[in-house]
Amino acid sequence: MKVTDILRVKGNTLFTTNPDQTLAAAVKSMAELDIGSLVVMEHGDLVGMLTFREVIAAIVANGGSVGDRHVRSVMDDSPLTCTPETEVDEVRRMMLMRHARYMPVLDRRTLMGVISFFDVAKSVVDAQDFENRMLKAYIRDWPEDAAGKAAPAA
To answer: What CA–CA distance (Å, rounded) separates 57 from 55?
Structure first.
């Protein structure tokens, strides 16, 4: 399974911000949209990611408030990325190694979407469920021998 399969199911809604937006405005957007990340874009290019991890670190560093900081000062300016053709198992490994919850998907320089660790886990569980259903259907349809007994497995 590839990242493109996850994006096909998930859809292509993207939420972005620019690096010069205030952190307060970005956090407000995240809360209103009930999302955990914003892709930071500048002049059509991905320049960073803003997730709740960066927001919480900025709030703690500022004594409990967002203050008047801008997204640029707190964003992850080198986020982990993948392509639509990246295998989901590889994405899972990458996300686990970097403790990343969100990953932008780029086709060259074009942002195709963002996948979350939840999306990756859901795709793995869905694939396993499908495989289990196929195996159970195969077992139910096990061919019988001439005496009416189930034929032994080869």
So the answer is: 5
For residues 52 and 68, give the distance between their C-alpha atoms in angstroms, rounded to a whole number.
Answer: 17
pLDDT in tens, 96-112: 999 999 999 999 989 99
Which stretches of the chain are DSSP H helices? 3-10, 23-33, 52-61, 71-74, 88-98, 117-140
- As a whole number of Å, the end-to-end CA separation of the chain is 29
pLDDT-flagged residues of the chain (< 50): none
Helices 88-98 and 3-10 pack at an angle, to 10 degrees, of 90
Name the H helices within 62-116. 71-74, 88-98
Q: Which domain holds residue 92?
A: 3-140
Instruction: Tell me how many domains the chain contains.
Output: 1
pTM above the 0.85 mark?
Answer: no
